[in-house]
Write a sequence for this structure.
């Protein structure tokens, strides 16, 4: 589960800004938080949901992209081929042009708290540091720092594997590869000290950005291959008032005309394809619709089902991070999903950016669950929680937001 995430010198982020899922004390709506289970350490409650607001080009998506960098680098497999790392420094300050982007994650996995720090340019990993907190005691596992003379490593006295294996890990790690990834790739399954935090960096959060077409295809494929998933999708749609009672997959032979358009020979290509058929039920009876006849909203919901299911059912401590959730789903549906997530017993987290202020008015979330982005005079993103501003817990957040009390509103020049 995510505790907090910091970023600096990346795209619109200049100085270090921190997004936190730590719950503020003494606020109501206790169902909106959960207690992280950590061995030998008592941590503050964490938020189940956080919504990020702000004008266009204020940095909301850049925050999500920055988090995605960590996942992207953690998923890279050892390879002799080099590829530029996906970072871009803050461009309005020439002094930062040659400096690395910096990312820092604090998280809990398998009952242990970790801190992972990463500094990188497009060409190489500049710094990398992993700290664990057994029984709440800060314990360095390793630190890597690139100097003019080459990479320098510091290994914590409790790091498993032994000196010879540590040397092998060092020699095998390329400039664009995480030492953490290389070490796990070159160690046995029994060595879990580095494997477990890497597993969280790879699978501990899912990022959904852009249109849902690819996810909709994935959901349909899974439903076709695993029949209970088709029932799960139907149930999910019904929960948000889409009356789909059944989903089936019919085999369709490809016509010779279609094959001709594709430049294929009908005699050598006899593959059939399937089409998704959804049954809708109303007071007048039932009717069947091909997937392509469905509204964009229903298609988006079918696509959203898969990450929703994974984060809430398959991986109980996973964070689902969605960029512009309101662009894919109706505000009432968003509110319904947020309410459902809050009421669930899962310790998974839902984080999303949005322009829609319906949730502020719905009174589902607390002050500390609303975050705001805005750009300052230097073009740099400022990030703060509504809880940072003075105000009562019961105040009208939507009204005060539009009054500019929390800032984070676009300045529209009037002609």
């Amino acid at each position: 589960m995510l505790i907090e995430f910091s970023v600096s010198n990346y795209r619109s982020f200049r100085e270090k800004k921190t997004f936190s899922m730590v719950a503020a004390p003494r606020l109501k709506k206790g169902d909106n938080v959960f207690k992280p289970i950590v061995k030998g350490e008592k941590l503050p409650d964490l938020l189940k949901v956080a919504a990020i607001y702000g004008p266009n080009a204020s940095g909301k998506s850049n925050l999500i992209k920055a988090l995605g960098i960590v996942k992207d680098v953690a998923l890279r497999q050892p390879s002799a081929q080099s590829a530029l790392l996906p970072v871009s420094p803050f461009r309005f300050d020439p002094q930062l042009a040659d400096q690395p982007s910096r990312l820092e994650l604090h998280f809990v996995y398998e009952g242990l708290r970790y801190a992972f720090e990463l500094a990188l340019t497009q060409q190489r990993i500049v710094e990398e540091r992993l700290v664990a907190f057994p029984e709440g005691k800060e314990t360095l596992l390793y630190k890597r720092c690139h100097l003019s003379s080459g990479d320098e490593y510091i290994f914590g006295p409790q790091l498993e594997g032994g000196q010879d294996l540590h040397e092998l890990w060092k020699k095998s790690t390329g400039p664009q590869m995480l030492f953490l990834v290389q070490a796990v790739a070159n160690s046995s399954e029994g060595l879990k000290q580095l494997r477990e935090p890497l597993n969280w960096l790879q699978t501990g959060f899912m990022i959904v950005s852009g249109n849902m077409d690819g996810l909709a295809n994935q959901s349909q494929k899974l439903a076709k291959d695993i029949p209970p998933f088709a029932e799960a999708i139907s149930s999910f749609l019904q929960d948000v008032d889409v009356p789909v009672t059944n989903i089936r997959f019919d085999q369709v032979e490809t016509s010779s005309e279609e094959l001709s358009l594709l430049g294929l020979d009908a005699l050598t290509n006899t593959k059939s394809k399937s089409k998704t058929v959804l049954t809708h039920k109303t007071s007048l009876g039932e009717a069947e619709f091909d997937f392509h006849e469905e509204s964009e909203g229903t298609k988006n919901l079918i696509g959203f089902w898969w990450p929703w299911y994974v984060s809430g059912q398959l991986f109980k401590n996973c964070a689902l991070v969605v960029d512009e959730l309101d662009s894919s789903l109706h505000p009432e549906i968003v509110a319904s999903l947020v309410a459902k997530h809050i009421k669930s017993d899962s310790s998974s987290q839902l984080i999303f950016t949005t322009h829609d202020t319906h949730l502020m008015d719905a009174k589902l979330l607390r002050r500390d669950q609303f975050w705001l982005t805005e750009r300052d005079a230097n073009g740099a993103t400022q990030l703060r929680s509504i809880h940072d501003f003075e105000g009562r817990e019961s105040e009208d957040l939507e009204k005060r937001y539009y009054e500019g009390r929390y800032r984070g509103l676009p300045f529209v020049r009037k002609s």
